[in-house]
Known about the structure:
By secondary structure, the chain is an alpha+beta fold. It is 37% helix and 24% strand. The chain starts with a helix and ends with a helix. This is MmcQ/YjbR family DNA-binding protein.
Amino acid sequence: xxxxxxxxxxxxxxxxxxxxxxxxxxxxxxxxxxxxxxxxxxxxxxxxxxxxxxxxxxxxxxxxxxxxxxxxxxxxxxxxxxxxxxxxxxxxxxxxxxxxxxxxxxxxxxxxx
Length: 113
C-alpha cells in the first residue's frame, strides 16, 4: 500500500482527519485530535498497535519499534508496500479503534463513535 492508499483507508474511518504537524512531507492521521498513524514522503509508516500485536510484530521482525513512539506501543514499517493491503488496512482500523477508545465519552459521541 502506498501513501495515497494509506490516506484512503485512514480517512474512511469515522471521525478521522489528516494533519501535517511535522511538515508537509508527513501525513498524520488523527481521531479526536490524537494521532493513530503517520506516513512519511519516503513511504515509512508508523501506527499504534495493541500490546500483544507489538510483541508479535516486533519479535517476528515484521515491524520495527517506531522511533520516539515505541514506548507507547507503536510500530514502524519501512515499506508498507511489502504487506498485503487487507492486512495493513486491518491494522490501521485497529490503530484508529485503540486511540478512539481512549477518548472521552463526550468526544466519542461528538465524533459519532
